[in-house]
């Protein structure tokens, strides 16, 4: 995709805005350095970023989250980062704000491409990615596969969550077969509904002692689930459009919450997205994202096999023998073709 050319006036405006932001950031950093030198901030302490707002962060330490400023040399912090920060107190000893002075090493980071195809970090230090889909809007296996490939690329364990199971037809219908297909591959599958009191028991058990992030198509009920998991939080819940039955985006920034109903559980609510782009991956990485392909890769007759119609292709033979589901292989082909279209 070719980049849109900017006019001279547009470039001037962008440069002016960036220069002003840099100036304000430098001034703030100087002020923070002066306060640190003057002893206006307390001792260093560990914390966790619970929300990110440009140059400010909400950091959770021993007490309530504190709004902190970000040192100029600490670009790129995201929700879930473990940091070192120092608090400022008023004359009564109450913490009024703070400054983040360092970031601890990350165990992992979840990234997704933006509109320009550039990777943008969303959250860090995650134990599992909960891929939420629902009976309505109808789930598309290819979209689920895209999430799974993205999760496999990060090395973060994915869990499939089928929500709104109260809307399932008797016997489960086609969705039950779809779930069994993923379970056969070894993926964890959890079902949930907010329509019953006991509808989140399996989800509670899945979340215990882990830091999780919800991803999924808009309208699948992520905010509704979090509203039940966090009854004291005020969350905006988007209503499904009566015409398209597609959801509206309601979450504007990733936030980390402690779950009172699950033991030592943390949940990151990320912005809703309709499609998870994979333009940052190549064909080999996509193939490796299909876990049933991994033992077959490298076994084709030709080293440069692209798994289309080449003779001796191990993947095509596996499909013919029933060792790879034809719909999963077709999904893989669609993803690869979409990479070539960008």
Structural overview:
The chain has helices at residues 8-37, 141-154, 173-184, 201-207, 222-229, 283-289, 314-321, 326-341, and strands at residues 45-53, 56-60, 66-70, 82-89, 95-103, 109-113, 119-124, 128-134, 157-163, 188-191, 211-215, 255-259, 265-269. It has 342 residues and is α/β, with parallel strands linked by helices. Strands 10-9-8-11-13-12 form a 6-stranded mixed sheet, with helices on both faces. Strands 1-2-3-5-4 form a 5-stranded mixed β-barrel. Strands 6-7 form a two-stranded antiparallel sheet.
CATH class of the largest domain: Alpha Beta
Q: Give average pLDDT, whole number.
A: 82
Choose one word for the global shape.
globular
Q: What's the CATH topology name of the largest domain?
A: Rossmann fold
Radius of gyration: 23 Å
Give start-end ranges of low-pLDDT stretches: 235-251
- The CATH homologous superfamily of the largest domain: P-loop containing nucleotide triphosphate hydrolases
What is the CA-CA span between the terminal residues?
Answer: 6 Å
Which sequence of strands runs across the widest sheet? 10-9-8-11-13-12
Multimer state: single chain
Helix fraction by DSSP (H/I, runs of at least 4): 25-40%
Question: Helix count, per DSSP?
Answer: 8
Q: Please state the second-level CATH architecture of the largest domain.
A: 3-Layer(aba) Sandwich
Instruction: Tell me about the largest β-sheet.
Output: 6 strands, mixed
What percent strand? 15-25%
State the domain count. Answer: 3
Which H/E pattern describes the elements?
A: HEEEEEEEEHEHEHEHEEHHH
Number of DSSP E strands: 13
Find the structural class using helix and strand composition: alpha/beta
């Amino acid at each position: 995709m070719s980049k849109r050319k900017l006019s001279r006036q547009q470039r001037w405006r962008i440069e002016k805005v960036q220069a002003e932001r840099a100036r304000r950031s430098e001034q703030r950093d100087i002020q923070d350095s002066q306060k640190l030198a003057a002893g206006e901030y307390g001792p260093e302490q560990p914390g966790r970023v619970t929300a990110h707002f440009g140059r400010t962060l909400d950091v959770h330490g021993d007490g309530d989250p504190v709004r902190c400023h970000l040192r100029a040399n600490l670009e790129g912090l995201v929700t879930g980062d473990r940091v070192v920060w120092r608090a400022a107190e008023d004359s009564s000893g109450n913490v009024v704000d703070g400054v983040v002075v360092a970031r601890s090493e990350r165990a992992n980071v979840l990234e997704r491409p933006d509109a320009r195809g550039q990777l943008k970090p969303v959250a860090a230090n995650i134990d599992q990615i909960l891929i939420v889909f629902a009976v309505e809007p109808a789930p598309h296996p290819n979209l689920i596969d895209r999430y799974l490939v993205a999760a496999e690329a990060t090395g973060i364990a994915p869990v499939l969550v089928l929500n709104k199971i109260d809307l399932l037809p008797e016997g489960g219908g086609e969705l039950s077969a779809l779930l069994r297909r993923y379970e056969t591959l070894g993926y964890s599958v959890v079902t949930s509904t907010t329509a019953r009191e006991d509808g989140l028991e399996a989800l509670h058990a899945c979340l215990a002692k882990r830091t999780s992030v919800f991803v999924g198509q808009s309208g699948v009920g992520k905010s509704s689930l979090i509203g039940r998991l966090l009854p004291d939080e005020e969350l905006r819940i988007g209503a499904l459009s009566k015409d398209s039955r597609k959801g509206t985006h309601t979450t504007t920034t990733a936030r980390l919450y402690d779950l009172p109903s699950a033991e030592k559980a943390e949940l990151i609510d990320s912005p809703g997205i309709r499609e998870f782009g994979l333009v940052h991956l190549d064909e080999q990485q996509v193939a490796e994202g299909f876990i049933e392909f991994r033992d077959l890769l490298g076994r084709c007759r030709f080293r440069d096999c692209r798994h289309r119609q080449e003779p001796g292709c191990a993947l095509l033979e596996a499909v013919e023998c029933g060792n790879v589901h034809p719909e999963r292989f077709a999904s893989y082909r669609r993803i690869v073709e979409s990479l070539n279209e960008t």
